[in-house]
Amino acid sequence: MAAGSSNYWEGEWKQARQLENELDLKLVSFSKLCTSYSSTRDGRRDRYSSDTTPLLNGSSQDRMFETMAVEIEQLLGKLTGINDKMAEYTNSAGVPSLNAALMHTLQRHRDILQDYTHEFHKTKANFLAIRERENLLGSVRKDIESYKSGSGVNNRRTELFLKEHEHLRNSDRLIEETISIAMATKENMTSQRGMLKSIQSKMNTLANRFPAVNSLIQRINLRKRRDSLILGGVIGVCTILLLLYAFH
To answer: Among the four residues 102, 121, 182, 199, which has the most C-beta atoms within 10 Å?
Structure first.
């Protein structure tokens, strides 16, 4: 019975490892797809800024994105099921005394699943944001070209409009960078404020200790003065006795 339970756990563990390896490869490819999608659209926009062709004709990349997203979601679902089975096994009766080690292994696999899920949703959200932005820009450019061809607006005005649009995008990027710098400055100032409070607390502690130190110094000075007077009196008496002895 114990051997059968051990084989069951090992089988589920191997499946979990296999699914994690597949997910790792899929997520790497998924991230590269998102990066290549962005760079491809940026390059196309730079080279064909005056072309009437819509920016987004990468339907193959969109289909690839949808396919990979479905595959990753399926793998995540399978891995979640394997983790649930492993959890049921660790909670079932008759599990050997290695339950603590099994729980540790299960927690590690759960952490890996959580990391993969977070990475997948983050990459997917970035991809969708890029695609939405490019769709919006493509629609704007298409409207501009339609307006230019339909109403006879000269190329100079169109170029100025496009430059103004690019300036707005650059301004938006600069604003985001400024906000990031302001947030970092705020964090630094908060940290410095904490350091100043700590220094102030130490200064107050030292200030509270100074009266006791001054009292101790005064006692030491009084004792030294008393010892000096005693020593001076002894020397004076000895000198007088020596003089009396010398003249008699």
So the answer is: 102
